[in-house]
Every structure is written in structure tokens, then in C-alpha cells.
Amino acid sequence: MKLCVVTYNIRNCRGVNGKVSLKAVASTIAGIKPDIVGLQEVDCFNPRSGFANQAARLGGMLGMYYVYGPNVTWGCIARFGNAVLSRYPIINWQNYLLPSRGQKRGLLLTKIKLGRKSIFFLVTHLGLSRQERLKQVDQILKTIGGVSGPLLLCGDLNARPGDGEVNRLQTMLQTCDLSNAELTFPADYPKYKIDYIFHSTHWVLAETKVFTSHASDHLPLAAAVELVHAK
């Protein structure tokens, strides 16, 4: 089975022009035609983004299943975190808070049904300090160690190829690309690769591509993968 998976930091749907537009983010994602999407920096009931439940709204606009993993709470109802959109049913999910010194970070784990098979799809967004990120990666690896079956991990790592955080993840997973050819940040003049998609040995990578968009300060990274070992 072949899938198109995407990781995309949407910065609460705030574009390069500083304006919030769910429509712009939805249009960007729709143009990629993905099967599963991992989103970071997703607002829910936040006044800065019009009190929208962004994961639910995007899921509805794109005709996809969704789950939301809030990591930060502001006031009574405002939330901020990661989300997964999927064309296939999401049959189980769990949100893990990661060790964080500043803004709280998390790992959203989902189990997705692909016909008679199921896979695990995880999305994360690491912190801004290196030591914090290393601790977060250690926790992610412990969580992954308890999962059996085909797995994909994506997210904004705030780290570059060759950094310790990326190298540690590679002890258990394979990355879809480690070249600086796939620059994802900032969106209007990309200089850095800090967004990644990793996979277990159950998958074979066909290709990766960064898509141009001004709907966020990051660019979406897509990977075409094929499930070759279901067990």
C-alpha cells in the first residue's frame, strides 16, 4: 500500500502576511492530496485565531478524520498543540506531554486503520533549547519502543540534519531525507531544514517534496511511502 504523508507547522494558520486564514492552509494541504497529515502549532478556541477549533475545521474542509492533542492551555478554553488529519479512520489515539522547560510540548500518537491493516502515525514539535530537545527525543524513543507495527513519525524538530536530536531518532527510525535540499523554514525565503518525516523498516520511501506556500511560516514536507512489511 502506498501513502502520501505530510508534516506541516501551520503557525495557527497565520500566513507570511500575518493574517489568519484556515482557507489558505486547507488549500495548501488539498493541493498536495495527502492521505495523512501531521500538523503542529494548531489553535483551538483561541481569540488570536477567531476562537476556531482549527483541527476540526480543517478536517471538515478537507473531508478527513482528525484528532487533536493539546499541549498548552491559556485561560479557560484556549488550547495549542498538534493534530493529525487522515483519509483513513483513526481508531485510537493518545497524547503524551514531553519534558519541557518553556512552552509545553507533546507527542500525539494515533492508530490508523488501512483496510485490514493498521499503522501508527505520530506527530511532535520539539522545544527551542538543545538540552530540552534531547530529553524530549529520549521520551519519544521510549514511547516508540512500546509500539509494535508499521510506524511513521513527523514533526518540527527545531533541529538541523546532523544534530544530536536527529541522530538519536535515527537509532530507531529511518529519515525520509537528510539533505539540505529540502529547506522548510522560513516559508518566504527557506534557509533551514527543521521539519522531518521518519519511518520504521516496514516502509520504503519513494520520494519527498517540499511544497511552496505562504499560508504559514513553514513549508509543508511530503513523502510518498509504501508499506512493504505489515508485521
Automatic annotation (TrEMBL):
* Endonuclease/exonuclease/phosphatase domain ranges (all copies): 6-218
Entry keyword annotation includes Nuclease: yes
Task: Please give the InterPro entries that the UniProt record associates with this protein.
Answer: Endo/exonu/phosph_ase_sf, Endo/exonuclease/phosphatase, GPI-anchor_lipid_remodeler
Whether Nuclease counts among this entry's keywords is yes
User: Gene Ontology terms, cellular component aspect?
Assistant: membrane
Q: Which Pfam families match?
A: Exo_endo_phos
Keywords from UniProt, A to Z, are: Endonuclease, Exonuclease, Hydrolase, Nuclease
The record ties this protein, via SUPFAM superfamilies, to:
DNase I-like
Q: Which GO terms describe its biological process?
A: GPI anchor biosynthetic process
Q: Which GO terms describe its molecular function?
A: endonuclease activity; exonuclease activity
Q: Which domain of life is it from?
A: Bacteria
Indicate what this protein is called per its UniProt record: Endonuclease/exonuclease/phosphatase family metal-dependent hydrolase
**What is the organism of origin for this protein?**
Desulfallas thermosapovorans DSM 6562
